[in-house]
Amino acid sequence: MDIKKLLIADIHLHLDGSLSSHAVIEIAKKENIVLPTYVEKELDKYLMVDENCASLNEYLTKFDVPNLVLQTKYGLKTTYLDLLKRESEAGLKYVEIRMAPQLSTQKGLSQEEVVKTLIDAKIEGEKLYKIKSNLILCLMRGATESLNLETINVARKYLGKGVVALDLAGAEALFPNELYFSLFKLAKEYNIPFVIHAGEASGANSVKTALEMGASRIGHGIHSIDDEKVIKMLVEKQIPLEICPKSNLDTKTISSFDQLPIKKFMEKGIKVTLNTDDMAVSNTTLENEYNILFSIGFSYEQLKQISLNTIDGAFLSEKEKEELKSYLK
C-alpha cells in the first residue's frame, strides 16, 4: 500500500501554524527580528507543542513567534513560497492556505496589501513548484468588528482572484459562533463561501450554530458525533468535516486517536476530509495524518475515499476537481 498516492489535497492548513524554522530564521536575520534562538532545532521548541499541551487555548500560544515574521511583504512571500515548496515535494497538488490578514498589519501593511502579496506568491509558487493553491481569509474571534469587516471586504474584492472563502478562527470556547452571525450574514449577501471552526473546543451545538449561519464546511467538527440532530444536518446538507487528527490530539479534543469518530461519521453518510491544520505546531504532515488513520484500522479503500472527499470539498470548479482526482486513478 502506497499512502503517498493519496496525498493530493489539504484544505485545512494554517499558514502561521505551518512555518518551517528555516524560513523563520531566514526572515528574522534579514529583517533584524529578535527570536528566542537562531538554531533551527532549538527554535522548533517555540513553534511546536509537546505532549503536555493542555488545551486549544495553550496550543494557540505557539503562533506568537510565527507572527513576528508575517508582518512584511518579504516575510509573507517567503513563508508562503516555502510552504508551497514543502507541500509540492511531499507530492501534493492542491492546498487551501488560510490566514488572518488582520494579524499581519503590525508594521504598516493594510489587510489588502497582505492579501495581494500572498496572491502574488501563490502565482509565483504555482510556476515554481507546480502546485495549485488558494487563500481562505480568517475572521478572528475576539477581534473588533471593524477589523473583521475589513477582512470580509478584502475577501469580496479578491474572491475568485486567489481568495476562495472566509473562515472563523481562534478560541472557540471563549468566543462562541453566535457572536458572529451578523458578519457571516453579510458574507452570504456578498456570496462569499465560508468555513467555520466548530465542534473542536466546544460541543455539537457550536456545529449546529455554524450550519445555521450557512457554513459550507466545518473546521474539525469532532463533537458533532454527540448530537444526532447535528449529524442529520451534516448529512442532509452534505457539509464536509475538515478532520485534523494530530491537531485534535494536541488540543485535547481527543485523548487518543482511537477516539476519533471518523468511521462513525462515514457510516452515517458524512463527508470526512483529512488535513494537517498546523504542520509546525503539531509537527505533522499529510502523510502522517493518513498513517495515523491506517494505524487505527482504516483500509486503503477507506483512505482513498477520504482523499476523494477532500478533493470534492475543495473550493474549486468541477473541472479542477476532476483534474485532481485523475491523480488517484
Task: Describe the structure concisely for a colleague.
With 329 residues, the chain is of the alpha/beta class. Helix content is 46%, strand content 13%.
Notes on the protein architecture:
- With 329 residues, the protein is of the alpha/beta class.
- Helices cover 46% and strands 13% of the residues.
- The protein has helices at 21-31, 40-47, 56-59, 64-68, 73-89, 111-129, 145-158, 181-189, 204-213, 228-237, 245-250, 262-267, 286-295, 300-313, 318-325; strands at 9-14, 94-99, 132-140, 163-169, 195-198, 217-220, 241-243, 272-274.
- The strands form 2 sheets. The chain has a 4-stranded parallel sheet with strand order 1-2-3-4, with helices on both faces.
- Helix 5 runs parallel beside helix 6, helix 6 packs across helix 7 and helix 9 runs parallel beside helix 10 (228-237).
- The model has no long low-confidence stretch (mean pLDDT 96).
Task: Present the secondary structure layout.
Elements: E1 9-14, H1 21-31, H2 40-47, H3 56-59, H4 64-68, H5 73-89, E2 94-99, H6 111-129, E3 132-140, H7 145-158, E4 163-169, H8 181-189, E5 195-198, H9 204-213, E6 217-220, H10 228-237, E7 241-243, H11 245-250, H12 262-267, E8 272-274, H13 286-295, H14 300-313, H15 318-325
Parallel strand pairs: 1-2, 2-3, 3-4, 5-6, 6-7, 7-8
Helix pairs in contact: 5-6, 6-7, 9-10
